[in-house]
Amino acid sequence: MKRIILGTAGHIDHGKTSLVRYITGVNTDRLKEEISRGITIELGFAPFVLPDGQRIGIVDVPGHERFIKNMLAGATGIDVVLFVIAADEGVMPQTREHMDILRILGVNRGVVALTKIDAVDADWLELVREDVAEYLKDSPLRDAKIVEVSSVTGQGIPALLDVIAELCAETPERVSAGVCRLAVDRVFTMSGFGTVVTGTLWSGAIRQGDTLELLPSRKQARVRSLQVHGEKRDEVYAGERVAANLAGVEKAFAERGSWLAAPDSLKDSTRISLRLELLPDAPEIAHRTRVHVHHGTTEVLARIVLLDRSALAPGESCFAQLELETPLAALPGDRVVLRFYSPMFTIGGGTVVDASAAKFKRRNLESELTRLAALYGGEPTQVLRVSMAKDGRPWSMAEISECLSRTDEKEPERIVREMVDSGVLIELQDGLLFLAETANGLKEKLTVWLNDYFARFPMRFAVPKKEVAQEHLSKMDPKQQRAVFRYLDGAGGFEQDETAIWPDGWKPVITAQQSAVIADIRELFAQTPYSPPPWSDAVAALNIADREQGEYLQWFLRSGEMVRLSDNVVYTRDAMQNAEKTLCAQAPDGFTLAEARDILETPRKYAQQIAEYFDLMKITRWDGERRFWLRRG
Predict the structure, then answer these.
(1) What stretches of 240-286 adopt beta strand conformation (E)?
(2) 238 and 275 fall within a common domain
(3) Is residue 415 one of the residues assigned to a domain?
């Protein structure tokens, strides 16, 4: 059976709560003040079974302008609206604001209940009926049926229920896949049970025993038990009114406006990009106007950053950013409602396009607007392309599936295969996928950077991969970096080994003066091959400038002429090879450190350096006294 939320809307004292009480038998006004004053202040909830057997949840919202934020908290999770207009008053100010909110939230499936028909005569009812029909023509409920009812006599109630049943039958079922998130609208504690949160489950499913996370506190809690309208459940699904008893978290870490979600599935951000829509009767909005932002059950303050204009006229729309004063955990496709800072009234809203946007830079205006237009359009391949282009790194299939879940696409694997076959995506090792345009841009950028690098350091054979990764792959983790280097290895234009990379065909450029210095270093180390001078002493003896000392050392190491044992200790490779041959010939059954010292005729510390190098290279094995050959020199 489908899971449907029906929400009320309409002006104060137009009979929303009375109508809900008549059809359900539940008084959704539960606060003492609500009962004494006869007005709804907080959200009210009731279960109801329609005549056709469909069970739905009802959210009753307040109509008073002072409690509009409470109305917004309830309206954001509804599938069908029961829009109430009293026959004795007709269209009133909150009638209009509630309709504006429905327009912004994209709620266009509903029925209009013309209430209190028992309180007016036939002529007046006819006038109100015509007035309401005219008003609805330019509203989201332009196609809605108008049903005249009385919560006193019951007149029209069966017809109203039939219409609601039809609407529920036409309403698509919410998908219980994707990110699990519940918009918390009420928090309380129960003696012996602890913290309980209630709200509408926007997407996903929750099972008893799940570990979930409360945002913004980032506190994790275990779901001890679940209820839907008082009925205990082992599992709940998107589109249901849920009460979750949480273990391991105090009430202080949960409040209206919180989200209950799968751990690490939501990221809060202080900047979002959206398609901003201003209501036709709103005032013109200037760049950096301060507003109240309503998202789910959350309310935060923000400033509107208009990207391509200095002001937005009534009824117009554009791409914009919200600079949020408090982080917001949204997802692309979510709707937000904007209310003027002071005095507070609804001015518009929009659809979240980028839930974690970077600060806008005017020099990137054209490309940013193109990117936002692609995201807003929702075409899967374009959404994936621009999302991966912004991220600038390879993605896993799981990340791609999450990205495409914002569209209604059910086959991310098929989309990826088509994009790979058409050359838009490149398959890397470990199942990673890389956007071809990003890969080509990286190749071009790296080629230019390497050419500039070797123009500055012509003696060098290669660039350490760590340096390249720090400069060009800093957004990537080690696994992604390895995959990109493997891709570059086969992409052409580069050569590399385990630790370094260089342009295809590159050879170090050595001047005549540098060749002479290299010869002097060779001669110095050849004088005492088994007891070479520390590198710092050697370059000082040859008067090599400080800025060049490292360049010569890297040249010798990279060319393979020398091996490095520590920061300041280097040997020629010939010396090490000759030491191995000499020791192997004179001590074929192994040697002690003293024997190595005598055979190589070198001080003990140098013999120890050579012996430890042999151990490191798996040439010998030391048992604590003697070293035995693992291979013959």
Answers:
(1) 241-247, 259-261, 269-278, 285-286
(2) no
(3) no
Report the run of H or E that residue 419 belongs to, with start and end.
helix 412-421
Half-sphere exposure of 577 toward its Cβ, with a 13 Å CA cutoff? 7
Residues 233 and 349 in one domain: no
Q: How many domains does the chain have?
A: 4
CB atoms under 10 Å from CB of 439, counted, come to: 18
* Residue type (1 letter), 539: V
Owning domain of residue 250: 181-261
Of 465, 526, 532, the closest CA to residue 499 belongs to 465
Which is nearest to 59 in space by CA: 159, 68, 38, 73? 73
Q: Is the peptide bond before 280 cis (omega within 30 degrees of 0)?
A: no
Answer for the pair 425, 434: CB distance below 8 angstroms, yes or no: yes
Q: Are residues 70 and 48 in the same domain?
A: yes
pLDDT of 42 reads: 44
Whether residues 256 and 322 fall in one domain: no
Which residues, 6+ apart, have CB-to-CB distance to 478 below 8 Å?
Answer: none
Cα–Cα nearest to 483, from 469, 494, 470, 495: 469
Residue 477 lies in a domain: no
Task: For residue range 112-152, list pLDDT tens digits in order.
Answer: 999 999 998 999 999 999 999 999 999 999 999 999 999 99
Place of tokens 């003066």: 513
DSSP per-residue codes, 186-210:
EEEEETTTEEEEEEEEEESEEETT-
Q: Are 115 and 151 in contact (CB under 8 A)?
A: yes
pLDDT score recorded for residue 104: 87
Q: Write down which residue in 313, 348, 365 finishes a domain.
A: 365
**How do residues 146-193 score in pLDDT, each as one tens digit?**
999 999 999 999 999 999 999 998 888 777 667 788 989 888 888 777
E strand or H helix that includes residue 578: helix 573-586
Is 152 in a helix, a strand, or coil?
Answer: coil
Whole-number percent of the chain with pLDDT over 90 = 59
> What is the CATH number for 190?
2.40.30.10
Supply the pTM of this predicted model: 0.70
